[in-house]
Amino acid sequence: MRNFLIAASLKLAAVTLLLMSSLFSTSNVTAADAPASLYEFKTNTLEGQPVDLATYKGKVVLVVNVASKCGLTKQYTALEKLYETYKDKGFVILGFPCNDFGGQEPGTAEEIQKFCSGKYNVTFPLFEKVSVKGDKISPIYQFLEAGQQVPAWNFHKYLVGKDGKVIESFGSRVVPEDPKIAAAIEAALK
Hints:
Layout: H1 2-23, E1 42-44, E2 50-52, E3 60-66, H2 75-86, E4 91-97, H3 109-120, H4 139-145, E5 157-160, E6 166-170, H5 179-189
Parallel strand pairs: 3-4
Antiparallel strand pairs: 1-2, 3-5, 5-6
């Protein structure tokens, strides 16, 4: 009888543990539920207007976490040039201000917009400030980082194909005028 009670207690404990782990799981999202494309996300512009990223479906997209007070901020000039070169061929850059690295994007949305358009003549779309790491990571960046190099600093770049899937990522030190970025964009545009 004692063995029966021990076995029953162990089974009950296992079932209880299984139920508790499913209740307190940090994510109930299955792989089948996970977004398969960048174009499944919605976000807000820097001005706070809602945007469905499906707007960019069929385009090649370069997603960049940007910052105004970074040693790499001068990349805005080359990003704008890259945008101007390819925008009429189905290419767009999406800039996401990020304050995760050294507090280098502390400004308000209005300050960021004024800085980007005034100092660097940025015309590519800018979106609300996001986190690209840690507990508050943006769902967009969770998607971008899956199976890719994770941003180690500002101005990390993700190239996304017309199908909304990440093709390649480029670290912060790979400048926008690097020939491998242009080659990757041109290949994706074909």
